[in-house]
C-alpha cells in the first residue's frame, strides 16, 4: 500500500507493536488525511488504543515508523503540542477537580480556547466542586471530551468518547464537535466499536481487526459497496437472487435485504416496477460483514 | 491550519510542566505546610506535657530534649513525589508533554519544594536557637549534629534541602521503575540492591574497616554531607529519566 503524504496529518508505515504476551499491531500502514474526521473502527481489543497511543507518542512501535505532520512524535516537542489524546480511562492528578485539569490543559495546549471550554462545561452540566475521581463515568468522559475539544489541537484523538455519556450528552458532544470542526477545521480521529453511533460524523473509515488494517476508505465510497432494498418479499428476492446477501430481515410479507455491489440500470428499472425502495445501508452491517467474512473468499475485496 | 508550524524551543513548555506539579494547590504545598506546622506543634506539646508530668520539674528543664518532628514534612514531600510518578505522569501524557519536558518540570518543582523545606527548616532552627528551645530547651530543628558545623544553621538548611531533593527523586524514580517493570522485577531489583549492600557490609567487616567508616562519618559536617549527597541525587535523577523515557502511562 502506498499513500500520498501531502495533506496527511499522520502517517503510519509498517508499524508492529508487540507486548510481552501479544501482538497488538501487525504491520499496520495507514494515513490520516488532514482536516478530516476519521472513524477508527474495530472490535474491542482490535488495536485501536494501541494505534492511537503510538501515533501520539505515548507509546512507540516495535517496528515501523510514525510521522505526525512530517515528524516523529515520540519525545518531539515540536509536534507533541499539536496532538491531543485523552484516554477513555485517563488517570488524573489525585484529588484534582475538573477545573484543575482544565487549567493544566490550558497551559499545555497552545490553541486552548477557554470560551469553548466554558460553554462545554455548562452544556455537559459538569460539577465544579466534585473531584474527578468521585465523578460518575459519564462525567469523567465529559472531562476528557472537553479537554479534547477545547485543546483545538491540530490532530485530536477521541478514545470511545461516548462511553458513559447518556443519550443527551452524546448528542451534545456530536453537535459541538461538528460545530467547532466547521469553524476550526482540523484532523479528528474517533475510535469506536459502535459504528452506527458515529457513522453520521465521519468522512473516512479506518477499520482495524486483530491488529491489522482491513480497510481504509471514504464513507461514501464504502456505502456505495452495498445497497439495502425494502419491499415485498417476492419482489426483493427476485432482484437480489444472484447477489451476495449481507443481511436479510423478514417482517411478515415485507423484506429488508442488504446486498453487495451497486445496482445496474436494469435492476433499478425493475425495482420501480416492483415498488421496491432503496434505503441507506447501515455502515455497521457492512463493516461487520467485511470483518467476519471468510478470508479466503473475500480477501481481494477487503484488503485492497 | 497548515502542516508547517514555526519552529519553537523544545523546552518552551518546561514552565507549564513545572506548574503541572502544582495543578492541585493543596497536595504539593498545602499538605506539607500543614504537616510541618502540625508536627512542630505536636512535638512541642509533648515536651510541655513531659515537663508537667515529671516531678523533677526544673532539673529536667535544664536538659535539652531533641525530637524528630522536623522529618514529618520531609516524608510528606517524599510521598508526594511518588504520587507525581503515579498520577501526574499519566496526566502529562494526555496533555501531550514529552517525557523529557515532564521530568524537567517535575524535578524543578521538587527542587523548589526542597528549597522551601530547607528554608523553613533553617528558619525554625534559628527560632529555636535564639529562644533557647522556646525557653524550655525543646529542639525539633536545631539539632547539634546538623547545626554545629561550619556554616551553622544555614548549612543545616542546605543539608535538609539536599536530603529532601534526594529522597523525592528516589521516591519518584522507584515508583516509576515499579510501574514500568511490574511487581516481580521490582522485587528482584530490590533484593539485588540488598545483596549489593550486604556484600559491601561484609567487605568492610572482613577488612576490619568499621573503625575507619565511623571515623569518616563523624568527621562529616552538614556542609560536607550536602556535597556527598549531591552524587546520589544526580544519579537518581538520571536513572528516573532513563526509566521514564520508555514508560507507558498506566490508566486509572
From TrEMBL, chain A:
Q: Which domain of life is it from?
A: Bacteria
Q: Which Pfam families does the record cross-reference, listed alphabetically?
A: ABC_tran (PF00005)
Gene3D superfamilies in alphabetical order: P-loop containing nucleotide triphosphate hydrolases
| GO MF term list | ATP binding; ATP hydrolysis activity
Q: Keywords assigned by UniProt?
A: ATP-binding, Nucleotide-binding, Transport
Q: Where in the numbering of this chain does the ABC transporter domain appear?
A: 10-235
The protein's name is: ABC-2 type transport system ATP-binding protein
Source taxonomy:
Bacteria, Bacillati, Actinomycetota, Actinomycetes, Micrococcales
TrEMBL record, chain B:
Q: Would you tell me the protein name for this molecule?
A: Uncharacterized protein
Organism of origin is Garicola koreensis
Q: Which UniProt keywords apply?
A: Membrane, Transmembrane, Transmembrane helix
Give a yes or no for keyword Transmembrane in this entry: yes
Instruction: Kindly list the residue ranges recorded as spanning the membrane.
Output: 29-52, 72-89, 101-127, 153-174, 181-205, 225-244
Amino acid at each position: 500500500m502506498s499513500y500520498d503524504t501531502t495533506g496527511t496529518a499522520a502517517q503510519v508505515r509498517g508499524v508492529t507493536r508487540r507486548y510481552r504476551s501479544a501482538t497488538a499491531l501487525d504491520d499496520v500502514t495507514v494515513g490520516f488525511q488532514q482536516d478530516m474526521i476519521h472513524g477508527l473502527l474495530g472490535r474491542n481489543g482490535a488495536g485501536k488504543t494501541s494505534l492511537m497511543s503510538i501515533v501520539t507518542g505515548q507509546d512507540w512501535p516495535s517496528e515501523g515508523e510514525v510521522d505526525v505532520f512530517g515528524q516523529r512524535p515520540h519525545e518531539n516537542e515540536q509536534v507533541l503540542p499539536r496532538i491531543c489524546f485523552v484516554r477513555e480511562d485517563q488517570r488524573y492528578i489525585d484529588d484534582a477537580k475538573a477545573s484543575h485539569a482544565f487549567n493544566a490543559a490550558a497551559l499545555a495546549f497552545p490553541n486552548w480556547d477557554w470560551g469553548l471550554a466554558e460553554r462545554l462545561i455548562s452544556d455537559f452540566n459538569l460539577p465544579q466542586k466534585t473531584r474527578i475521581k468521585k465523578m460518575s463515568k459519564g462525567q469523567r468522559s465529559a472531562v476528557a471530551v472537553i479537554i479534547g475539544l477545547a485543546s483545538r489541537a491540530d490532530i485530536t484523538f477521541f478514545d470511545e468518547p461516548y462511553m458513559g455519556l447518556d443519550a443527551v450528552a452524546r448528542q451534545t458532544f456530536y453537535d459541538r464537535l461538528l460545530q467547532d470542526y466547521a469553524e476550526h477545521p482540523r484532523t479528528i480521529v474517533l475510535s469506536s466499536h459502535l459504528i452506527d453511533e458515529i457513522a453520521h460524523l465521519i468522512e473516512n473509515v479506518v477499520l482495524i481487526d486483530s491488529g491489522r488494517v482491513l480497510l481504509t476508505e471514504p464513507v461514501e465510497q464504502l456505502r456505495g459497496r452495498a445497497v439495502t432494498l425494502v419491499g415485498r418479499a417476492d419482489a426483493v428476492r427476485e432482484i437480489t437472487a444472484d447477489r451476495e446477501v449481507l443481511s436479510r430481515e423478514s417482517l411478515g410479507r415485507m423484506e429488508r435485504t442488504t446486498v453487495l455491489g451497486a445496482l445496474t440500470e436494469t435492476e433499478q428499472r425493475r425495482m420501480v416496477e416492483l415498488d421496491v425502495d432503496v434505503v441507506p445501508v447501515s455502515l455497521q452491517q457492512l463493516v461487520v460483514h467485511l470483518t467476519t467474512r471468510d478470508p479466503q473468499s473475500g480477501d481481494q475485496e477487503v484488503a485492497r | 491550519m497548515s502542516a508547517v508550524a514555526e519552529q519553537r524551543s523544545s523546552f518552551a513548555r518546561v514552565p507549564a510542566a513545572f506548574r503541572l506539579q502544582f495543578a492541585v494547590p493543596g497536595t504539593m504545598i498545602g499538605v506539607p505546610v500543614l504537616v510541618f506546622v502540625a508536627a512542630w506543634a505536636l512535638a512541642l506539646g509533648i515536651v510541655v506535657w513531659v515537663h508537667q508530668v515529671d516531678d523533677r520539674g526544673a532539673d529536667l528543664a535544664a536538659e535539652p530534649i531533641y525530637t524528630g518532628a522536623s522529618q514529618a514534612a520531609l516524608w510528606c514531600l517524599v510521598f508526594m513525589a511518588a504520587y507525581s510518578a503515579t498520577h501526574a505522569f499519566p496526566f502529562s501524557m494526555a496533555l501531550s508533554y514529552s517525557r523529557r519536558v515532564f521530568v524537567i518540570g517535575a524535578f524543578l518543582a521538587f527542587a523548589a519544594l526542597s528549597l522551601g523545606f530547607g528554608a523553613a527548616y533553617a528558619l525554625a532552627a534559628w527560632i529555636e536557637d535564639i529562644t533557647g528551645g522556646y525557653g524550655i530547651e525543646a529542639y525539633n530543628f536545631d539539632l547539634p549534629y546538623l547545626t554545629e558545623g561550619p556554616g551553622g544553621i544555614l548549612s543545616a538548611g542546605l543539608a535538609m534541602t539536599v536530603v529532601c531533593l534526594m529522597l523525592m527523586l528516589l521516591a519518584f524514580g522507584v515508583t516509576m521503575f515499579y510501574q514500568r517493570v511490574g511487581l516481580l522485577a521490582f522485587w528482584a531489583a530490590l533484593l539485588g540492591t540488598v545483596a549489593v549492600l550486604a556484600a559491601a557490609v561484609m567487605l568492610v567487616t572482613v577488612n576490619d574497616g568499621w573503625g575507619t567508616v565511623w571515623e569518616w562519618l563523624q568527621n562529616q559536617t552538614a556542609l560536607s554531607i550536602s556535597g556527598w549527597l549531591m552524587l546520589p541525587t544526580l544519579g537518581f535523577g538520571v536513572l528516573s529519566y532513563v526509566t521514564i523515557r520508555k514508560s507507558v502511562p498506566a490508566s486509572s
